[in-house]
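Good morning,

Attaching, inline, the backbone tokens for the sequence recovery test we're adding to the shared suite. The designed sequence is right after.
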């Protein structure tokens, strides 16, 4: 999705919060660097929006790309896992971006439905 991410993840080290924190830190830096480096017609607008978001929180230095919170939910059963996986795969369809789940380029749906590797590296969980 263009403005958020859904993720089913686990951590062998047991510290999923640290993984999410590091993911947000790394991707934020890369997003800002790309906006500043590449020709981008919305550069000033994007940097202003990220700058205004940062100004709302003391712990931000200059820009804030991601929100500080996340909505972590333990997937405690196979039924609940399937429900969340279906929700994630249906998200771009509900938003009108694609007609079929497997057509969204940044989704695991293609690999789950067709067995064809998509753009997202993943480990199938079912």
């Amino acid at each position: 999705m263009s403005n958020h991410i859904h993720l089913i993840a686990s951590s062998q080290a047991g510290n999923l919060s640290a993984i999410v924190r590091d993911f947000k830190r790394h991707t934020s830096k890369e997003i800002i660097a790309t906006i500043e480096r590449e020709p981008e017609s919305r550069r000033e607008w994007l940097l202003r929006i990220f700058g205004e978001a940062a100004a709302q929180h003391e712990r931000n230095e200059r820009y804030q790309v991601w929100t500080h919170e996340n909505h972590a939910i333990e997937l405690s059963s196979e039924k609940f896992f399937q429900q969340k996986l279906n929700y994630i795969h249906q998200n771009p369809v509900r938003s009108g971006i694609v007609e079929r789940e497997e057509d969204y380029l940044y989704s695991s749906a293609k690999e789950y439905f067709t067995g064809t590797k998509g753009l997202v590296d993943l480990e199938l969980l079912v």
